[in-house]
Amino acid sequence: MLELTPDRRLTGGIRLLAHKAQSTTEPILRGLVPPELVIGLHQHAGESAVPIVEVGQRVAKGEPIAVPGPGVSAGVHASSSGRVRAIEERLIPTGARLRNALCVVIDTDGEDFPYRGATSSAWPTDRAAQLDLVRRAGIAGLGGAAFPTAAKLEGVAGRCKALIVNGAECEPYISCDDMLMREFPEEIVLGVIRMADLVDAPLAIIVIERDKPQAIDAIRRAALAAGDPRLRLAEVPTIYPAGGERQLIELLTGEEVPSGTYPNAIGYVCQNVGTAYALQRLASSGEPVTSRIVTVTGLGVATPRNVEVPIGTPIGWLIEQCGGYRDDVVRLIHGGSMMGYALPSDELPVTKATSCILAATDDEIRVDFDEWACIRCGECGAACPARLQPQELVVAATARDFDDLEALGLDDCIECGCCDVVCPSHIVLTERFRSAKRALAQHLRKQALSSEAEARHKRRERRREAAVEDTRAAQEALKAQLRADEERRRAIEEAVERAKRRKRGNVEP
Amino acid sequence: MRRVLYALAPAAAVYTWFFGFGLLINFVIAVLAAVGTEAAIMLLRRRPVVRSLRDCSAIVTAALLAFALPPLVPWWIPALGGVVAIGLAKQLYGGLGKNLFNPAMVAYVLLLVSFPVLMTQWLPPRMGDIDYRALGFVDQVRYSLFAELPPERTIDAYTRATPLDMVKEGLRAQRPFQELRAHSMIGTFGGRGWEWVGNFIALGGLYLLYAGIIRWHIPVSVLGGLLLPALVLHLIDPSGYAGPAFHLFSGAALLGAFFIATDPVSAPTTDRGRLYYGAGIGLLTYAIRTWGGYPDGLAFAVLLMNAAVPLIDRYTQPRIYGHAKR
User: Which residues of chain B have a CB within 8 Å of the CB of A376?
Assistant: First the structure.
C-alpha cells in the first residue's frame, strides 16, 4: 500500500492563491555559471564553517573551501572553478533573516572545471561514516531553513518512527520542489530510501499537496518502481501552512511536537525533497552541494521559471538570466510571499536557503500599512495553526508584557503569517511577534543573568554568615577553654591552700 | 461594517411597511447624534475624525438602537441614545474595539429604565382587523419634533402593548396561552407584523453568515438558549408557557441573535466561548421574559453576558499546539 490518506484536518490554516503556474511552464534552466560567486560560510543555524582556501588560490567546482566548524555545521564547496579573490564578511540571506557572514568570493573562469580530489565516490556502510560524509558534503535543509542535515538525522537515528519527506510546498509562488519532483522523481525516491536506511526508519512518507498532480504522478511511478515496502505517498489538502514541519506531523500522525522541542523528540524527522535529491547525488556520484533549484518569479520578472543556481550566484545576475526586471517591481523578496523577507539589494548571493526570489509588484505584496482598530473578531485565532490568540498576543507585544507573552505562548508562534492575511483591520501581527520574540529572549536572558547574580550574592552572604559563625564559635571555644583553665587553676590553688592548712596544725579533721 | 447595514435594510423596509416611518425617523436622529458624538470626541482626542467615521461602526450602532426603540418617541430619545451609546459606552472605554459593553444596548437600557413610559409607545401593525390608526410620515415627524398629535387624539389612541407584553400579562392573569394565541395581535407564528420583520432580520442574518461577517456560533447558541427552555416548558405546560415559535418571532430574539449579540467587540473571541456566551444570552432572555419584570430581556441578557466575556475568554483559550492538556 503506497497511498497514505491522512484522516485528520489541519488546525487553522488558510486557502491562498498559489501563484505557482507562472513559474512551472518552463523546465528547470541549468548550466549557468555566473562571473562571480559569493559563497557564505555560515548559511545555517549552528556554527560557521572554517575556510581552508587562501586568497589567490585556484579552486575547482566541488572543491571544499571550508570544513564544518565544531558542533552543528556543514562544509562548503566551490560552486564553480575559478580563483579566490577575497575572503571577507558580507551580508547573506539565511533561512529566517539576513546575516553578516564570512564569504569566499570567487572570480569564475567559465570552465566549470570539476574537482578530482579526495571526495570518495563510495557511499560508506556504517552510520557514523555516512553522517560524517553528509556533514562534510555540506548537505543542509533545502526547504528553506538550511539546517545542517547530518545534525538533524543524527538527532533521530535509531529511534525514528517515520521519516517524513516534505514535498508539500504550501507557500505561494515557490515551485522549486514541484519542478524537482517532476524532473527527478527517481533520484528523489532513491535519496529517500537512503535516508530511511540511515536513520533506520520503518516508514518513509513522501508528502505532496494535491495541487501538484504531475509531481504526485511522477513520484508515485518512481516509488512503485523502487518497490521499497517502507515508502508511502501522502496527498494532503492544499491549505497553508500544511507544509510546516509541526503541521505535517499533526496532519499525518495526530501527534504534536512538544513545545520548545523538535520533531526528533517524538521520533520523527522531516526532510525536504530537495535534500533527499542532494543526498542521492552525494551517494551515487560523490557530489557535494554546489547548487540548488531556485524559483525566480513574481510579476516583476520578465520570465518566471525555476533555475538550478550555483550557490553564491549574485541575485541580480540570476534575475538577468530570467529576462531581467519589469518596470513596476517594488520589492525583492527572499522566500515566498508568506514567510519570506525583503532583500535590501540584489547584490546579495543565493545561499542554500534560497528557495525562491520573488520580484514583486505592488499588486502582489502589501506595501501600505494602514491599520485599523482590532474589533476582536477572532479570525486570527481561528486561522492560527498553533492555536494561539494573536489578538491578545499583539496587545502584550505592544506593551512588552513579557509575563503575558510567555503565558500566551509567543514562542509557539511559527510565524506563518496566516493571522495577518485574515485580519479585517489589516493589523501587522507576525512582524510584531518576531520582534517580540527577540525582546522576550533578551528579557529571559537578562532575567537568568540577574537571578544568577542574585543566587551568587546569596551564596556569598551565606558564606560570610558561616564565616562569622565559625569565628564566634572559635571565640566561644576559646572563652570556655579559658574558663576551664581558670577553674582548674583555682582548684589547684584551693588544694594547695588546704594542704598548707593541714601542715600548719591539723585544725580540720 | 457597511454590509451589516445592507443586511438590515430589507428588515427596515418591512418594519416601515408595518409600523410606519418612526423607525427611519429615529434612525436618522440616532445617526446624527452618534456620528456627531464620535466626531466630537475624536476631535477632543486629537485623532483623525474622517478615518474613524469611515468604518461606519457609529451608523451600525445607531441602526441597532433605532430597531430597539419604539417607533413613536420624541426626538431626544434617539438623540440621547446616540450620544450615550457612542460617548459613554464606546469612546469612554477607548473607542472602537475597546468597549466592554454593547453600545446600542447600553443606550437602550439606559433609556428603558429612565423613561419607562415613553419606551412603551409601540404601535399596532398595519392590519385591517385591529383598530389601526394611520399616522403618516408628517404626523410622525410632528410628534417626534414637537410632541404634537393630530387634533383630538391622545397618545393612547395610537400605542399598543407589544405581543410579548400582552402574552406576559395574560399568562400572569392565569389566561391559557392557547386563548392568548387567538388574539388579533398574534399572527401565524409570532406577533402580527413582528413575525415578518423577524423573517427579514433572519434573512439579513443568513446573509451575514454567508458573507463570512459573523460565524454561526453566537446566533445558534442564542436561539438555542432561548428556544430550548421555551420548548421544554411549553411541552410540559402548554397553557402556562408560550411556545418556541412565539418566542422566536417576537421581540428582539432574531435581531439579538444575528445582529446584536454578534458584535465582535463585546463578545468572546473563541468559538467555544461564543457558544457559552450565546447560550447565556438565550437563557437569560428566556428567564427575564418568563419570570422577570420586563416583557423582553435580550438587552439585559446581552449586557450581563458582556460583563462575563473576560472570564469566558480566559477559560476558553484553546490548548496551544505542543502543550500538554491543562
Answer: 97, 264-265, 267, 269
